[in-house]
Design a protein that fits this description.
The relative contact order is 0.22. Helices cover 30% and strands 20% of the residues. The radius of gyration is 14 Å and the shape is flat. It has a domain of 46 residues: Double Stranded RNA Binding Domain (2-Layer Sandwich), CATH 3.30.160.250. The termini are far apart. It has one helix and three strands; from the N terminus they run E-E-E-H.
Length: 70
């Protein structure tokens, strides 16, 4: 499965979350580290849902850029 993650700059590095997985967040010092940490966080989150017998939410969020005059 492919889940969208949003990565934002923070005062100490980066933070990330997935809109399709509420509560699933991670951080990192670099973009690459943040992405890798988020991948692990998603895997851990999904494993927890499975263990609890809960449904795995499908990835449905999409992202797009729009261009505007500044």
């Amino acid at each position: 499965m492919k889940y969208l993650i949003v990565i934002e700059k923070s005062s100490t590095g980066y933070s990330a979350y997935s809109p399709d997985l509420p509560g699933c967040v991670s951080t990192g010092a670099t973009l690459d580290e943040t992405e890798a940490n988020m991948r692990e966080a998603i895997e851990f989150h999904l494993d927890g849902l499975k263990e609890e017998g809960m449904e795995i939410p499908p990835p449905v969020t999409r992202a797009s850029y729009v261009e505007v005059a500044a």
